[in-house]
Each structure stands twice: as C-alpha cells, then as structure tokens.
Amino acid sequence: MELKEKITLDMLTKDSVSVLRQQFLTFNGEEMQVGGNIRNAYMNSKSGREQLKTVLSDEYYNAVMAVWGDNPTVDEPMIEESEET
Questions:
Q1: Domain ranges of the chain
Q2: What SS3 class is residue 11?
Q3: SS in 3 state form for 38-72?
Q4: Which residues contact 17 (CB under 8 A, 6 or more apart)?
Q5: What is the Cα–Cα distance from 22 to 38, expressed in whole angstroms?
Q6: Which of the listed residues 5, 10, 41, 44 has the most CB atoms within 10 Å of its CB?
Q7: Model confidence at 85: pLDDT above 80
Q8: How far, in Å, CA of 63 to CA of 8, rounded?
Q9: Which sign does the torsion angle of CA 46, 67, 21, 29 carry?
Q10: For residue range 8-57, what is the model confidence (pLDDT) as tens digits?
Q11: Given this model, what pLDDT does residue 48 score?
C-alpha cells in the first residue's frame, strides 16, 4: 500500500490560485481516494505569496509565480475596527 498526495493548481489567474490537495492510496494495483478534497485559495498579495511559499513545494510555487510575476496585484485586506458605544 502506498499513500500519495496529488496537488492541482486550479483556477490560476494573475490575481489568485486555488490549490486542491487529494490523498490517494494504491491497494492491489487500484488507486482510490482517501478522505475528502482539501481546497485553499490564495490571493496575489504580499501575504498570499508568503502563505503559498509555506504550503507548496518549490516546483508548484514557481509555477504560480510564472503566472503571477514579480509583484503582487492584489492589495492586502483591510481590517476595520468597530467602535463600541
């Protein structure tokens, strides 16, 4: 029995990417998925690039950077503080 992870870079645009992770088990020559799909989206922002670097191998990260280029295209999300009255 061999367990392997498949990673799919889905919906890759200049502004974002969706990373799909799937676990597969090979048993008696037949491949079957174990568990559910895990999908995370990342924006082409400074923090999105940093997050992506920590979760992807260089091979996948470099593929995304080939589309995204050298500079982020999305501003960092603004966190608004609410005033209590």
A1: 2-68
A2: coil
A3: EEEEEECCHHHHHHHHHHCCHHHHHHHHHHHCCCC
A4: 9, 10, 11, 41, 42, 44, 52, 64, 67
A5: 7
A6: 44
A7: no
A8: 11
A9: negative
A10: 999 999 999 999 999 999 988 899 999 999 999 999 999 999 999 999 99
A11: 96
